[in-house]
Amino acid sequence: MNETWEDPFEDVKALSELTRQRFQTPGAGRSGKPFQVLSTADDQLEVRTSRGGRVVLRAEAFQTAPKLIGDLGGLEEGGWVRVSDETLNAVLSGENREKACGSYVLPLLEATGWVELERKRPARVRLHPDRVATEQ
């Protein structure tokens, strides 16, 4: 078991060609929308939405998400949590200065192997099974 909790935000920033990749929000089918990372900084990154808008994502949202998903998923079979879960979204939004961010944070964490997304109705997320033992 890993004794230290790694930094998911640093893992996202370390993704190869992060600003050249296209990511997809968690929605099923056509409800999933593409987005792209525009820039990174020490404590945040900025994404461009499918409609051309910009959203700033704070490091704290990435750092909180895996533990929160693990905690919420501990109450459900298989560890799955609905992406629309009110607690999940409220906490992540709170960590992002009250700006909604789960639709962008979760796919980026999926790209690093921190979480798994199930893109069907309803979309669900869980802590990646390889992370479950190291999360505690």
Descriptive report:
By secondary structure, the protein is of the alpha+beta class. It has five helices and seven strands; from the N terminus they run H-E-E-E-E-H-E-H-H-E-E-H. It has a four-stranded antiparallel sheet. It has a three-stranded antiparallel sheet with strand order 5-7-6. Helix 2 (59-73) runs antiparallel to helix 3. The protein is globular.
Can you give keywords for this protein?
4-stranded antiparallel sheet, 136 residues, 7 strands, alpha+beta, 34% helix, 3-stranded antiparallel sheet
In short:
This protein has 136 residues and is α+β, with helices and mostly antiparallel strands. The chain contains 5 helices and 7 strands; from the N terminus they run H-E-E-E-E-H-E-H-H-E-E-H.
The helical percent reads 25-40%
Strand order of the largest sheet: 1-2-3-4
How large a portion of the residues is in β-strands, by DSSP E? 15-25%
What is the total number of structural domains? 1
Given helix and strand content, the structural type is alpha+beta
Number of helices: 5
Count of beta strands: 7
Radius of gyration: 14 Å
How far do the termini sit from each other? 8 Å
Low-confidence stretches: none
